[in-house]
Amino acid sequence: MKKQKPKQFQRPRGTHDILPEAQYYWDKLYSEIRQLSIFYGFGKLDTPHFEDTELFNHSVGDGTDIVEKQMYSFKTRGGDALTLRPEGTASAIRAYIENGMIAQPHPVKLWYAGSFFRHESPQRGRFREFHQWGLETIGEDGPVAEAEMIQMAGAFFQEVGLKDYFVELNSIGCPDCRGHIKSQILAYYRNKTKKLCMNCRKRMKTNYFRLFDCKEEKCVQLRQNAPQILDQICDACRTHFKSLLEFMDEIQFPYTLNPYLVRGLDYYSRSVFEFFVGKPEAELVSQSEGGEKPEEKEKIEKPEELPAKSHFALGGGGRYDGLVEKLGGRPTAAVGIAIGIERVIEIMRQQKVKMKLEQPIKVFLVQLGEMAKRKSLKILEQFRTVGISIRTSLGKNSIKTQFGIALKAGAEFVLIFGQKEALDGEIIVREMSSGIQETVPLSKVVEAVKRRIHK
Ligand code: HAM
Question: Does the CB atom of residue 86 touch ligand 1 within 6 A?
C-alpha cells in the first residue's frame, strides 16, 4: 500500500514565528521597555490571556469593530464566555479594582507587555496575534500624565533607533460636552446619509465618532465640512488640551493636530493620540505661546524628502477618566498608551536601523575523537560558570567543518581538543587573528583564555 504523505501544518493566518535571527530585535525592544518602565516608576502587571467576554464588551464598547468583529470569543466546557484579550487596558483596570490597588498611593502606574489577539484581515503590520507594550497611569487627572507617556514613547523610539516619529493629537471631549458634540456631528450628517457608505450609515446610530475615520473616498470628502470636535469641546476640555500642547512644546515633541483622530475604543475621553513615522499629513507644530489657538501655532520645518506617513500607527492611547467607575471602581482619572512591537520592528527594518548583533562568540571548542567529545561538555560548564560564551559543534567529527563554523561565528579563540590532548589532560588554545597557539593544561584553560581576552 502506498504510504500517505504526512500532513504539513502551517501557522494560523495572521500569526508569525519569531525566528532566532529576529530575536535580536525582540531582545533589544524588551530590554528598552523594561528599563524605561522601571525608570519612570511603572510596576509590571501580568494578566491572563483571556478574560470574561463581558469585560471587553463593557469597556472597549459594544459598537466598536474590536467587539463586533475582531474578538476571539469562546464558551468553555463549563459554560463560561471568555475572550482572548484584544487589548490590555480593560484587563489592567479589572486587575486594579480586583486587587484593591485603590489602597495604594496614587497615581498607580502599571506596565505590561505580551500577546494580544484580534481577528483582523492580516496585512503588513497587521496581525491576528501581535505584541504590545502598554502603560496605564491611574489616578492622575492633569495633562502631565499624557505628556509623560508621550515622552516615554519618544524615548523608546529614540533608544531603538527610529527616526522621524511624531504624534497626532486630538481631544474628543468629556461626558459634559459629548452631548453637544454628538448633536453637532449628527445634525451635519443627518441630511447627507445617502452620500455615506453603508458602514457609516450604521455608525450614525452606533458610533458616530467613527464617521471621522472611514477611509471611503465619499465619506472622506463629506467629513471635510463636518464640525470639528476640537471646536465643540467644553472650556475645561479645551484648557486641558491646551495645557497638553504646552507640555509638548516644553519637551519639544513633534506633533500634529488631527481633528479626525477618534480611536477605535469607546473608553476614551479628552486627549487621544497616535504615533507615526514619516511625513505628517498636517504641518508639524511646536512652540505654543499664551492664549493662542492651536491653528495659529508656529510650524516646524521638516525636510520634504521624508517618506510618506506610515500606513499604520506605531502606538496609540489617550485619557479614559470614566473606565474605572464603569468597571465598578471609584471615579478615577486614568491615561494609557500601547505600542505595537511588530510595527516598531517593521519600521526599524524599513529605516535600516543597525542592530548590535548577539554578543560575539569569544571561544569555539573544536573536538576530535570519542574521548575528547565525552570530556567536552565539562569544559563548556567551566566556561559558563565564569560567564565566557563558548560554542561547539559536538555533533560534528571533522576538524575542517568545525573550524569553518568557528570562523563563521567570528570566534576569537579556538580550543583544539583531540584524542592526544584528552589523554594528556591538555588543550590547545589558538588565537584566530594571529594563528599563534599554545598547549595548556586542561585545568588551566579558563584562566589561559581569560588572560588572553583581557590582554
Ligand atoms: P490600539 O490603538 O488598539 O490601542 O493598539 C495600540 C497599538 O497596538 C497600535 O497602535 C498598533 O501599533 C498595535 N496594534 C493594534 N492592533 C494590531 C494588529 N492587529 N497587528 C499589529 N499591531 C497592532 C489599544 O490597544 C489601547 N489599549 C491603548 C491604550 C492603553 N489606551 C489606553 N491605555
Answer: no
User: Could you report the average pLDDT of every consecutive run of 10 residues in the chain (455 residues)?
Assistant: 89 96 92 97 98 97 92 97 98 98 97 98 96 98 97 97 97 95 94 92 88 90 93 97 97 95 94 96 61 51 75 97 97 98 96 78 93 94 92 92 92 95 96 94 95 80
Mutate to test the pocket of ligand 1, among 87, 123, 270, 311 (most ligand atoms within 8 A of CB): 87
Q: What is the pLDDT of residue 16?
A: 96
pLDDT at position 288 is 42
Residue 215: per-residue pLDDT: 87
List the one residue out of 278, 288, 302 whose CA is nearest residue 248: 288
CA 23 to ligand 1 centroid distance, Å: 22
Q: Using the 8-state DSSP alphabet, how is residue 278 labeled?
A: S
Pairing of strands 426-431, 437-441: antiparallel
Q: Which residues pair with 131 in a beta bridge?
A: 115
Predicted pLDDT of residue 289: 41
Q: At what angle do helices 235-250 and 175-190 cross, to 10 degrees?
A: 100
Ligand 1 within 6 A of CB of 146: no
| Ligand 1 close to Cβ of residue 126 (< 6 A) | yes
Widest pairwise Cα distance in the chain: 95
pLDDT score recorded for residue 304: 61
Q: Is 203 in the pocket of ligand 1 (CB under 6 A)?
A: no
Mutate to test the pocket of ligand 1, among 65, 314, 343, 348 (most ligand atoms within 8 A of CB): 343
CA dihedral 375, 376, 379, 384 (to 10 degrees): -140
d(CA 155, CA 410): 33
Angle at 155 between CA 149 and CA 156, to 5 degrees: 90
pLDDT of residue 403: 94
Closest CA to 114 of 53, 49, 173: 49
Kindly state the cell numbers that stand for 130.
Answer: 501581535
Q: Mind spelling out the 3-state secondary structure of 171-235?
A: ECCCHHHHHHHHHHHHHHHHCCHHHCCHHHHHHHHHCHHHHHHCCCHHHHHHHCCCCCHHHHCCH
Tell me, using a 6 A CB cutoff, whether residue 168 lines ligand 1: no
